[in-house]
Design goal:
The protein is of the alpha+beta class. It has a domain at about 30-175. Helix content is about 30%, strand content about 20%. A 7-stranded mixed beta barrel has the order 1-2-3-4-5-7-6. A hairpin with a 6-residue loop joins strand 11 (about 290) and strand 12 (about 300). The longest helix has about 45 residues, at about 355-400. The two termini are about 30 Å apart.
Length: about 425
């Protein structure tokens, strides 16, 4: 890292329907179950209730690998009995630092048959995020909530669950969708749609043995092709060429040229969210996704992986859980094009700030959403905390991290509130652009 990150409230035991109605929560669920096609029903109350997931591996084998799956049975119990599930599949570890450094492990489940899990769209692949580094258990949920509210396509959803593995309680987890092509995931053409990750861990430097990654030709970013499955050099070369065309257009900062290739509103929303939660992984980059359907534009997202944001202290990465120290830290800086006061992120994310039209639209979009962040998006996120408070206490007893979860949630709220006000001044004073 080129720059070092600096790294109560009593909750109600139950979250009532009355509370949800009062705060008027509504959600855009872009890829949840279509109730016209599926018998599973959901209400706004149900999405907050904490379910239980019991995983039993074949012969009670330990889950020790993030490469090799172990056979298992999966049983899910919810207060919404229509969401109860029993099935078979396999399980393995997942993640990078979260798998390597922390005792509470994240998992990936692959069911033998597609199923709707807790009201979400049918699929075989599911993720259990451990949230061990996140003392609030809300960091991803907050971003996913914003993405849904802003109607960003294919935004993930959160269901909180308490997990047991081979009858051992392993804590409170976030269950969510695997980021992948699929009808209920990133709904692009399986053979000709593109889903790319800009991620150092999946790229050619750290994963040189893979045949589906490359260095981008203009910005030298690590790119991994998540869809389609690469079966020839010609296919990979075609994807490289199309991505290079996008990079070249961004490098030129010609708004009309870029607009032909890129969904600019999704790009603006994507970057506003990265700065709002101070997600410095833009600089690597890591966990940055974009997709493109046949004859469509490149579109940023899905949003993914935000427990390294919120002013995380990387100096105590393996042992600390320190966040929210300074609301004035910036990813893009006070002049994104020049990286003034921020990180030196790839020009892919900043060269458009040369365009006067882009800068104007960026400022206008922030002005449109800034007041909603704490009045709408935060309460919608905090509702999860009201519901999982008892489960969170059990998780804290199982995995003590020397943090009070309720205090950390309050700190998160205060950090976000002061950050919104600060960013309003910063963004309003961005240089107007030269093109």
């Amino acid at each position: 890292m080129s720059k070092h990150l600096h790294i109560n409230r009593n909750f109600k035991s139950l979250f009532s329907m009355v509370f949800i109605v009062v705060i008027g929560l509504t959600f855009t669920r872009c890829n949840e179950v279509d109730l016209n096609d599926d018998p599973v029903e959901e209400t706004e109350v149900d999405i907050y209730k904490v379910a239980t997931v019991n995983i039993v591996t074949t012969n009670n084998a330990d889950i020790v690998s993030k490469e090799d799956y172990t056979g298992c049975s999966v049983e899910i119990r919810s207060e919404n009995e229509k969401w109860n599930f029993s099935g078979t599949g396999s399980v393995r570890g997942r993640g990078n630092s979260t798998w390597l450094w922390y005792p509470k492990k994240p998992y990936r489940i692959k069911l033998d048959e597609k199923a709707s899990i807790l009201g979400l769209g049918e699929n075989k692949d599911w993720v259990l995020l451990a949230d061990y580094r996140d003392p609030t258990h809300l960091m991803n949920a907050f971003v996913f909530t914003i993405g849904q509210k802003l109607e960003m396509p294919f935004t993930n959803h959160i269901r909180y669950v308490e997990v047991t593995v081979n009858d051992e309680y392993v804590g409170l987890y976030s269950l969510t969708e695997q980021v992948e092509e699929g009808k209920s995931r990133v709904a692009i053409d399986e053979d000709n749609g593109y889903l790319l990750s800009l991620d150092a861990d999946d790229g050619p430097e750290l994963a040189p043995e893979e045949s589906d990654n490359f260095w981008s030709s203009v910005y030298h970013m690590p790119v991994c092709v998540k869809n389609p499955d690469i079966d020839s050099n010609d296919q990979l070369d075609q994807i490289k060429a199309e991505f290079a065309s996008l990079e070249t257009a961004i490098k030129n900062a010609d708004y009309s040229e870029v607009e032909q290739l890129l969904d600019i509103p999704s790009f603006i929303d994507f970057m506003l969210i990265q700065e709002l939660v101070y997600n410095v992984e833009v600089a690597a980059p890591r966990s940055m996704y974009l997709h493109k359907d046949v004859n469509g534009k490149w579109t940023m997202g899905p949003l993914w992986d935000f427990d390294a944001g919120y002013d995380f202290d990387w100096g105590t990465m393996t042992t600390g859980h320190n966040f929210f120290m300074d609301h004035r830290e910036l990813v893009l800086g006070t002049s994104p094009l020049n990286h003034t006061g921020g990180y030196v992120v790839p020009g892919f994310f900043t060269d458009l700030f040369r365009s006067q039209q882009f800068v104007s639209e960026y400022k206008t979009r922030w002005l449109a959403i800034e007041d909603q962040i704490m009045s709408d998006y935060w309460p919608a996120t905090y509702a999860y905390a009201e519901a999982f408070s008892e489960a969170m206490a059990r998780d804290a007893a199982r995995w003590p991290i020397n943090k009070n979860n309720e205090t950390e949630i309050l700190r998160m709220k205060q950090w976000l509130a002061t950050r919104v006000n600060y960013l309003s001044s910063v963004i309003n004073n961005y240089p107007a652009g030269t093109n």
